[in-house]
Design a protein that fits this description.
287 residues; alpha/beta; Arc Repressor Mutant, subunit A; D-Maltodextrin-Binding Protein, domain 2; 3 domains; eight-stranded mixed beta sheet; elongated; WH_DNA-bd_sf
Length: 287
């Protein structure tokens, strides 16, 4: 196994094909293909499924790709360490969050101090956020009510009660409160499985023996808001995430205390990366 073979494999997996990888590495496609083939032959393992002009990672290839992400990330860190004379970091910072609301100040502070860094922000539920972090597809995650996990370091960055929301005048007589035990009497709009807001509601319902079955399940917070605003039913959000949409009525849930704790999470084995350390410094400074 040679470094050049690993680099060839990693580039094909990263860029999604031999042609694109060859362009990025400034190599010919046959030379790149030969490096990958030699790696497969040396270990008698098929790493890509080749179908006409497309290639797909096999199970073994996907496992190796997770390892090469770590390998080349360490290589990049070594370069950054040796070039530490620079006061700022460069490159890309990938953030994936169920809601970026609680880190907007930190992102602004980070960008002011590190103008050469490109920041990308993607959304996802807790399950998706943790999966992206574990697959090295993001450096920073933000989730609600994080459950303990041995491979993550977690930092609480905010907390707020969970409230119900409905379309304006959806509840009769201008009501702005609803008992938790009465929620099952109303049409409920819940987010997808994997949402911590949904999990909190369902866990509380199970503990109180309150039936809690949605009539509509929707993928994503914004889509849920739109469905609720149309008058289709009652949804749930953290009070901090209620964006004062004039179409929506916040509703206090009585009879139980439901709280969403927003948590910033990073993989323990990546916490010493210069990019992550620098962002965490911004979080502490604006905290």
């Amino acid at each position: 196994m040679r470094y050049t073979q690993l680099r060839a494999f990693h580039s094909v997996a990263l860029y999604g094909g031999f042609s694109r990888a060859a362009d990025r590495l400034n190599q010919t496609q046959p030379a790149l293909s030969d490096q990958v083939k030699r790696l497969e032959q040396a270990h008698d393992t098929l790493l890509f499924k080749r179908e006409k002009r497309n290639v797909y990672l096999t199970e073994a290839g996907a496992g190796l790709f997770r390892m090469t992400k770590q390998f080349f990330e360490i290589e990049d860190s070594i370069g950054e360490y040796l070039d530490h004379s620079s006061a700022t970091v460069t490159g890309s910072l990938r953030i994936v969050a169920d809601s970026a609301l609680h880190v907007t100040d930190a992102i602004s502070h980070f960008r002011q101090n590190n103008p050469k860094v490109f920041v990308s922000i993607k959304t996802g539920n807790t399950k998706e956020v943790l999966a992206r972090l574990r697959n090295y597809d993001a450096e920073i995650g933000v989730v609600g009510n994080m459950q303990p996990a041995s491979d993550f370091t977690a930092f609480d960055i905010g907390r707020a009660p969970i409230i119900a929301i409905s379309a304006k005048n959806y509840l009769p007589n201008g009501r702005t409160e609803i008992a938790f035990k009465d929620l099952s009497k109303w049409p409920l709009v819940l987010r997808e499985t994997g949402s911590r807001t949904r999990s909190n509601i369902e866990e509380a319902a199970q503990a109180m023996k309150v039936p809690m079955k949605p009539i509509i399940e929707v993928d994503g917070r914004e889509a849920m808001r739109e469905i609720v605003a149309s008058g289709a039913g009652i949804g749930f959000v953290s009070q901090a995430e209620h964006n004062h949409d004039e179409r929506l009525q916040p509703i206090k849930i009585t009879g139980i205390e439901l709280e969403m704790v927003e948590t910033l999470v990073i993989l323990k084995m990546r916490r010493d990366l210069p990019m992550i350390r620098t962002f965490m410094r911004s979080v502490r400074e604006v905290g």
